[in-house]
Specification:
250 residues, alpha/beta, Rossmann fold, seven-stranded mixed beta sheet, two-stranded antiparallel ribbon, 28% helix, globular, binds S-adenosylmethionine, Protein-lysine N-methyltransferase EFM6
């Protein structure tokens, strides 16, 4: 595929117009299926099919890779600054791409409900393919969730209390849409926690964080892996509702 080198701060949004500053650092590869055992951490490797024809989430991005690795490495019991993800609850992933993070949660966590992996409609076939490849149909539910649009009745009924997002900060015009969806999800379930992992590529990415800090209670999750994340300019935050105190999720 053509690899353009536009460095415009607001590139044209097209799955095939990925500038080098927006693309994953690895070589852009042809469609392929890879076994990921996270350096031997997983006894049963996750099979991830990647295909950029589906969209720019068709190949796992750096924050998705790191976040997934961290989840596996910690045995899904991360503890830092009050952060504890054990997978219990209703998990929903935003901008899931091929679904790497959600698949990791489903295969490594003791989940009680299927994980919703969501993205735009063009990514649905790839998410479905990866769920089928890993025989995780009973544990992972792919669905369409367009940022900025009202939440669908499936999400409203599911009422997620753990929201995962990896590398969803990369396209400035989508920032308000993403913020609106994050707000809607926290309004739907005021006790929910959003785990937000992103790679800083441009100054605008920190503008997104500033807006999130205004809208939500934000905590940077710092632990022994901080150095590894820092080397790649990857940040991990939790976002919570500012009005969650005293409110019930029921
Ligand atoms: C950079 S990719 C990250 C994919 C995956 N989370 C990872 O870390 O590998 C961002 C994802 O956000 C999705 N996305 C972009 N704009 C969106 C929107 N308006 N609504 C829903 N998803 C969107 C893209 O389709 C893409 O899969």
């Amino acid at each position: 595929m053509e690899s353009k080198t536009s460095r415009s701060p607001s590139p044209e949004f097209s799955p095939l117009a990925i500038g080098t500053d927006l693309a994953p650092p690895r070589e852009l590869k042809s469609a392929a299926t890879t076994d990921l055992d996270f350096s031997g951490l997983l006894a049963d490797a996750i099979q991830l099919h990647e295909d950029l024809k589906s969209g720019n989430g068709g190949q796992a991005w750096p924050a998705g890779n790191q976040w997934s690795f961290k989840l596996q490495a910690s045995g899904f019991r991360l503890q830092a600054s009050g952060f504890q993800h054990e997978g219990r609850g209703e998990n929903l992933e935003l901008g899931a791409g091929g679904g790497l993070v959600g698949l990791g949660v489903a295969s490594g966590c003791d989940i009680t409900q299927p994980v919703y992996v969501t993205d735009q409609v063009n990514m649905l076939p790839l998410m479905e393919k990866n769920v089928a490849l890993n025989k995780l149909g009973s544990k992972v539910q792919p669905a369409v969730l367009n940022w900025g649009e009202p939440l669908g009745s499936d999400v409203i009924n599911f009422k997620p209390d753990v929201i995962l997002a990896a590398d969803c900060v990369y396209f400035e015009p989508a920032f308000p849409l993403l913020l609106a969806t994050l707000s809607d999800l926290l309004a739907l379930c005021p006790s929910a926690t959003i785990y937000f992992c992103f790679k800083k590529r441009r100054r605008a990415d920190m503008q997104f964080l500033k807006k999130a800090q205004k809208a939500f209670q934000t905590v940077e999750l710092v632990d022994q892996d901080r150095e590894v994340f820092s080397r790649e300019n990857i940040f991990l935050y939790s976002f919570r509702s500012k009005t969650r105190e005293g409110k019930s999720a029921s």
